[in-house]
Write a structure and sequence with these properties.
single chain, alpha+beta, SH3 type barrels, rod-shaped
Length: about 90
């Protein structure tokens, strides 16, 4: 009787394990990489926002960035909306 109950739950356990390794784990890994990328943003980096704006970071604050999208045109964006960093600046020498 116990073996039969275990055999009934085995497919559910296998489906959950497959879903974890194919969907949940890669999403968590990607989210962790995105947080690291956003935390490493600094002045001079060229970024692409989720809205498709491409610009250079001109000011960095706690949760916002000021991005220059054209000469003299600056917009404020939330850090988490940065989708990609196109080019990084070199760290300043101390």
């Amino acid at each position: 009787m116990e073996g039969n109950a275990f055999a009934q739950f085995l497919p559910l356990v296998l489906i959950f394990a497959i879903m974890y390794f194919l969907l949940i784990r890669p999403q968590q890994k990607k989210a962790k990489q995105h947080l690291a990328m956003v935390a490493a943003l600094r002045k001079g980096d060229q970024v692409v926002t989720q809205g498709g704006l491409i610009g250079k970071v001109s000011k960095v604050s706690d949760d916002e960035l000021e991005v220059e999208v054209a000469t003299g045109v600056k917009v404020r964006v939330v850090r988490s909306t940065v989708a990609q960093v196109r080019s990084k600046t070199e760290p300043a020498a101390n």
